[in-house]
């Protein structure tokens, strides 16, 4: 068996080509480790037989030196991406038996480049949540535990399964989606790298929709280089997504390295006043110092409307969700509860098929879009959204990147925030403004707090400037002192 | 603004979601507090600000309305909870 904890994507790619091990051995090792890690509850569905067969095919191609760019590399896919012939549940009872007859653009691209689907990873139901506790299939456990306590921690959400699986080495990389922080927050909670690309960079086609003007797919990985390698193969124009961008795609791995001397990082004045844990504040200061040491200028910037991002988001996202989730009607696909008349069938199906948080958001969205309230809430939020966007445009007039913590606290205990929606929502206070503005951002492990739990720093850059994210991001990776390897306490 | 129980029932009807009495009361209190919280947006002066629906600057593309796919009846019905003779089935709608 291979020591998977030492393997990141770039290492695996090189080792497979050199013949250090085969794809079949690698896939076998992951399956073995997954089987010994059931306790974490990261995978909703496994794809074992197919994965082994595909690995054998990849090994033949590698032997013939006829390999594709990502040949034979296993990947975990968030259970929100439709995968042809493999169950896609969005972690909801509504889709518990849904098997897509088509492939999402992102997974199609990755599989076309030679990647092998190991399984589908848990998430908050329909990506609505910040702790992976709203999954119909039960909570995912964070592979990290406090040194002082035996309590289980949440992995964050909504891409909690993706982040926990990469952190626990149950796949080398995973796909995820980010509507208000759903890639970056779980990455921060699990000591992994989470990238939310620019809105429009990666196709949304075939991804179960939550809030279409905010949703964006990205990778969760162990390293910044892996993140760049993944984006290279995920990004690109797709005519099937009407908001897909025609911006030039690049080989992002080439961006890493090179001097940052003379570049400028902005520190948002308003974020410094937020209720952020002391350890994270100190870590933020250390990160600022790392950039100073690299010859980067530090500048205080203003994002005056950022404090309105969270309330604006909790109008816009539920409004879009209430419209998107209208498709789950018990008729064309998904769960169904019979009713006397059609209206009855709809109501019973949706009443039984959706969980508590999903119902709350659909109800909230329906309310803000309903006659008499549309202008006061929905239109108002969209106007505020423009002001938030403009703040960033103004800030990027004088800085190359913005540095903030990813989250105000480290991972919290399972059950700690479930009874208070507003407290749960406040987790996304540092990540949501980025989605409203459509900007790219990355969360990178930057240290461990006093309890030995990972902290993450967030970098934000201009639209379509992911290259700078990787360039600036590698400084944190090189400067930090902690190791981001959880102990295998959950293993059988 | 606090939300009445009647409003919750009206919304659940609009959203086509049946909710229990317990859920109704819980949603009433939760949505009331969420609405109260989002009303902080009223502090912001948004006179003459255009609503922003999307962060992209380019407008949506037009394309020719050509058929480029089809003959997927089995695929389309594969996940249907009930079907009959290549049709989706619902309770009788017209008397």
Shape label of chain A: globular
For the largest beta-sheet of chain B, the strand count, sense and barrel status come to: 2 strands, antiparallel
CATH class of the domain at 5-42 in chain B: Mainly Alpha
Tell me the total number of β-strands of chain B. 2
Question: Count of DSSP helices of chain B?
Answer: 3
Strand order of the largest sheet of chain A: 4-6-5-10-11-9-7-8
- Looking at the structure, the CATH topology of chain A is Amidase signature (AS) enzymes
- The name of the CATH superfamily of chain A reads Amidase signature (AS) domain
Structural class of chain A: alpha/beta
**Rg of Cα set of chain B:** 22 Å
Distance between the termini of chain A: 16 Å
Distance between the termini of chain B: 43 Å
What Rg of chain A is obtained from the alpha carbons, in whole angstroms? 21 Å
The amount of helix of chain A comes to 25-40%
Overall mean pLDDT of chain B stands at 92
Tell me what you see in this structure.
The complex is a heterodimer of chains A (492) and B (95). Helix content of chain A is 37%, strand content 12%. Chain A is of the alpha/beta class. In chain A, 60% of the residues are buried. In chain A, α4 (105-112) links the parallel β2 (74-78) and β3. The radius of gyration of chain A is 21 Å and the shape is globular. Chain B has a two-stranded antiparallel ribbon. With 95 residues, chain B is mainly alpha-helical. Chain B contains 3 helices and 2 strands; from the N terminus they run αααββ. Chain B has helices at 5-14, 21-38, 73-77; strands at residues 83-84, 87-88. Helices cover 35% and strands 4% of the residues of chain B. Chain B has a domain at 5-42: Histone, subunit A. The mean pLDDT of chain B is 92. The longest helix of chain B is centred in the N-terminal third of the chain and has 18 residues, at 21-38. The chains are: A alpha/beta (492), B mainly alpha (95).
